[in-house]
């Protein structure tokens, strides 16, 4: 076991007004299974890059171990090559036999190393790269959101694999993954950084207790400050009133007041003023004790949604739907039947490639709305959508976001001031509003799409992996929103905890397996657009 020490760390991006980290100090052990969480934009990936030495910073980072980062960046020219050909370029000291051993622990075949990398699924690529990462020794591994875009089966495999490892720092917003894999938490709070033993649930329970205590202490201090202020004001009034009695003494009318009266009044006033000063000092101490009590408390603003109520009970009906893409004889969906009724929040669940996103895009295309993928063909069965149905869609891809927020609002017909207010409720900093969207983190881009969807009154909300890169606190915020407003939804999302909270029904979809001996014939594009 060895210690990684961060001392007085300060870092700011060039051209930015605010520091990402300011005089930060803490220590972690290289044997820990460490989870790292924080709001989007708080500097999680930045911290990993600082450990890797990619940015210049003030302060000190002392480590007796080497750092390795995941995911590896695979150059475009390597995508057509087998992973076995560039293993040493990813990790110079790794041996192929070690990678094969790690793949076995991931329930993956060594055959993945000898197929072109571009032919592998997201889950297969993740398994290969994790196997490379964990081959070898004496490294502290920096793992940045490994389960994004992975289906539930692949997530379970990665979860079990990481649960048997140590000496890593895991950045993730998946509460289920963090609970299963880590034994310590590193949390980037609003104003501080904390290191704590335990998994996410242990940290969350402790945080709630600390927050409750801080709020109780804050209320106690506020009551004491109000009481002291009232006493100080009253003593001040008495002092001023008493001082005024020294002025304008009439010897005839005030014959009972002798020569010692004025000094007596002055002494009494001085005593009262001293009392006022004492109250003010006590108030200063109380105010100082109150400072910082609520600095790290998360207070998500309740979000609002304006779902429209559709006039019919049923919104979508698929009858033995078969669909694929032009140029391919393989079907992505085969004889898929489905029904969505008003008020349901249905989550589609299944392996990557089983057609979840394809079905969402088919619904958009059938309803005559943008978002359907070019070349998508309905080759059999029926897909029916309700006439006049308004749909709000979140695409899992954020690559199309370019330009300013003003441009984004103008293109979508959104009121910019309301949109920015909603982004603030999702904890996007005001300083981000002046930037081009290309400069946003992936989590911040996702929040743009979520905010746009929430601002769109709709009969149906189609969300395709909306929570990739979204921080834990915003996920909980959205869970409460859906519970409060109960919109009709069709969702693809692999976050187990979110699905348990939000779904009224889960539909399992099966992957269409190709049979080499039985090549499916090419289909003429037939579009079944029907309304009831």
Give a written overview of the molecule.
- The protein has a six-stranded mixed sheet with strand order 5-6-7-3-8-9, sandwiched between helices. Strands 14-15-16-12-17 form a five-stranded parallel sheet, sandwiched between helices. The protein has a four-stranded mixed sheet with strand order 11-10-13-18.
- α3 crosses α4 and α7 packs antiparallel against α8.
- Residues 516-532 have low confidence and may be disordered.
- It is of the alpha/beta class and 532 residues long.
- The protein is globular, with a radius of gyration of 31 Å.
- The protein has helices at 44-51, 87-90, 96-105, 122-133, 152-163, 175-181, 200-244, 261-290, 356-366, 405-412, 416-425, 442-454, 472-485, 496-502; strands at 3-11, 21-29, 33-38, 58-62, 66-70, 139-144, 168-171, 184-188, 193-197, 314-325, 331-341, 345-349, 376-385, 391-394, 460-464, 489-492, 505-508, 529-530.
- It starts with a strand and ends with a strand.
Supply the number of helical segments. Answer: 14
Number of strands: 18
Distance between the termini: 67 Å
User: How many whole angstroms does the radius of gyration measure?
Assistant: 31 Å
Q: Structural class from helices and strands?
A: alpha/beta
Oligomer: single chain
**Mass-distribution shape:** globular
